[in-house]
Amino acid sequence: MNSWIIAGTALGYLILLSIIAWLAEASRKKGKSRINNSTVYALSMAVYCTAWTYYGSVGRAATNGLDFLTIYLGPTIMCALFWPVLRKIIRICRTQRINSIADLISTRYGKNFSLAVIVTIFCVLGVIPYIALQLKAISTSFDLLAGNNSATNSIWKDSNFYGTLLLTAFILYFGTRSVDASEKHEGLVAAIAFESVIKLIAFLAAGIFITYGMFDGFTDIFKLASQNDQLNKLYVLDESSSNTSWFSMLVLSLFAIIFLPRQFQVNVVENLNEKHLNKAAWLFPLYLFIINLFVLPIALGGSILYPNNSGNADLFVLGLPLSQGQYALSLFIFIGGFSAATGMIIVETIALTTMISNNLAMPLLLSGRYLQNRSDGSLRIIVLWVRRCSIILVIGLALLYDKAVAQQYSLVSIGLVSFAAVAQLAPAVLGGIYWKGASKNGALAGLTAGFLCWMLTLLFPSLAGAGLLNTDFIETGFFGQSWLKPTALLGLQSLDPVSHSLFWSLLLNTGLFVLVSIRSRKGIQEIYQGEVFVDVFKKENTIKERAVWKDNASLPALRSLLQNFTGPEKAGNLLEKYAQQHQISLESPKADPRLVTFTEKILAGIIGSASAHILVSRVAHAEELSMEEVINMLRESQEIRELNRQLIEMDELKDEFLYTVTHELRTPLTSIRALTELVHDNQDMPPEQKLQFLSAVIRESERLSFLITQVLNLERYESGKHVLQYSSIHLNELISKVMEAVLPLSREKNLTIKPTYSSPEIIVDCDPHLIHQVLYNLLTNAIKFSPKNGLISLSAKKEDQLISVTITDEGKGIPPESIDLIFDKFYQAPNQTLTKPEGSGLGLAISRKIIELHNGKIHASNGTKGGARFIFTLPIVANFNSNGS
Amino acid sequence: MAAKKILVVDDDPYILMSLEFLMQKNGYEVIVARNGREALDLVNEEKPELVILDIMMPDVDGFAICKVIKEDPVLKNIIIVFLSAKTRESDQKKGIELGAALYVFKPFSTRTLIKEINQLLE
Fold this sequence. Notes:
heterodimer; A: mainly alpha; 5-stranded mixed β-sheet; 35 helices; elongated; B: alpha/beta; Rossmann fold; 5-stranded parallel β-sheet; 5 helices; 5 strands
């Protein structure tokens, strides 16, 4: 076919794309977005299907069998995780105005500059081959269609070069229309979605023609193929087929659908509404399914017609219809492939450009004072030009790689090298959004190790394979060390090169990321961003409304900084709108902290968060809050909620306690009132009965005041108002004193109290008055529940660092269901058939509190003979730190 | 005419003491129970006309005793008066719903209580 016709059609197609993009931009400017729907979003996501899919899948299927499918299974699995994972990333990026994956990682780890640089360099290194792959696909398909024998070596005679120039112009125009990279490229997205439709239809057209035009449908092809031994072998999963390669390709593609710069661009940066994810989560896999329907028939059909690899399987899609003289169809198929390739190049280039300009070029340019102090908006022009140069740089590099390396490899194997590179971003990103403990140093260590490993095991061998490097190291290992053999590190030989590289790089990457994160100290920004990222859904409002800056930034300085990048008019508009929304005055010379944060975010969209942070802190002379202030602020909103809940709970508890206390107070009060009324109203009462009534009144009054004292004591211990009066005491003496005090009570029931001591002198630090109270409570309790003539044993033991006191009675013991409750206030075990025991109902609660104040422990159980047993322990040496006394 | 019989149930000895005196002084025959079990036994044995019932007792609570009495075809006409330190409205409501004639809060006035009991037994 005539080259001019093909070139003309391609040019026409690019013009059509431009019109679509232009229309979408135009309607956006009118405030009516044409692409704000989930179908367009899902279609733009299909930029995942590049020339690799379009041509390479068939090639892979014809040479490797079914494993081409793994590249689509991974994303399909990830689609199920869109809502939890991708939505979180989208939300984070929106609140922080993040516009590239490098920015995401750098922002997460404290807006770290080196991280941004490393990720950018690696994305560029990793993805350039992939862009080259697209260029290669365009040129080979063009040559096939035009009937050229092979690509010429002179770049000036290469039609591909001119095509690339046109494409570059397109990207330059639509990719740098706005200075704020976090603004949406609606025109581009519209064009990409359109391209997705075209490539799908074209591929289906090729499939249908080959299956039904050249063969008699699926059955026919599969029947013919099954008679072919060589083909048969490819499609049987037996021991010879590599499971590890399936697995590693699945993992690679699973990460690729999120971390490839172009996927990040369409999935995250260009996302207009999180809800679009819902539809994309099924529509996108469906797209993948449909576009793969005809891969097998085409691969098989081609292999039948060109047995023993006599045809280039990567070109079956185009070559088979062409061999039948179907020129119009072939031209359409070529345009489909052109769509797939250009879509990828456009988005990938824009994504890489944002990274290069925001993370490499702008920080370098802005480090000089000269540029920083321009306030006439000319920085805006500089930003745009930096972006334009970056675009040219990216495409130029890709073209170079295409000429130098790509011609030697199949489409899929080039793509896999890129996939393996971006997979290295997974630990830092996923760890960063789910784990607050992830640290900058961890991310740096992990990423660097992962990328180095990727270079050594995958990139260098591929460069060597293309003759760019001496191949010796592949056979003998780096530095002649056999354990450094790039395809068999440490002697691991059983894996294919991609799996091998993925295994070592991800192992090192994740391992170092986790280990270093755990061991390293984190800076204030890292901790802040960790909170913000991990809890983005909980803290979104805090993040939006609050500032990390103290309020001593100067407003004019801030305004002029913003003007540098947006121009005076837009800067004014932005600030006024924000101030109005948040009721901030723009009159005062000091900028409200929120304005500083707002400005930083706007700048982050233009020059990346690392540089924005540096500029804002430098130009506005603002001071950052201290670590403590930041953390407090972040936790504040959450804590206030938590505090409220606790207050309500405490309020309920307090009510309950108050009710129980008054209830307990009512009982003696009832007797007192009734008895005194009766004495008063019955003057004729016999004197002995009067005496009985009045002595009851006295006892009940005593009980009442005892109860009040107990309640107040407990309140004092619980509120921490009571300061322990520590002194070193002889426990044995204290116990003797308490035993004397309870003697009248124990005599009433004729009880024996038998003390045993582990040593004649047990000395312990405590508040003797309070421990006296505990011993008294426990002994009177034991007396109360002992049968007449019973024995109460008391043993005091000195153990390693503590003393323990055990008091056992011969009563009925504690009902098992009550053991955990008896220390509660006013708890009384049910089913005591005896008359109501005397006491406040607070003795055990008070005893527990006292022991806890001493950092000791108290618990109850039933003795072997059935009686109740109470044990408490106290540290021998007081631990003053933990109770502050 | 024989004196009307009143059963007084409370786990506090002094309250029992005062109620016993109060009722006897006003011409009633008084029997006392110090817990729920005793109370149920005495209700069956003695069939009193009125029961003064505490609610919080160590074994069976007063609500349960009231329920048993009111569900028993023979005993259901016995008049129940709750005398309790449980002073929440919900408790009072529950007592009345269970069929009690009166729900008196502790501490109570002996003067008012006896008037009300006299009225109930007229």
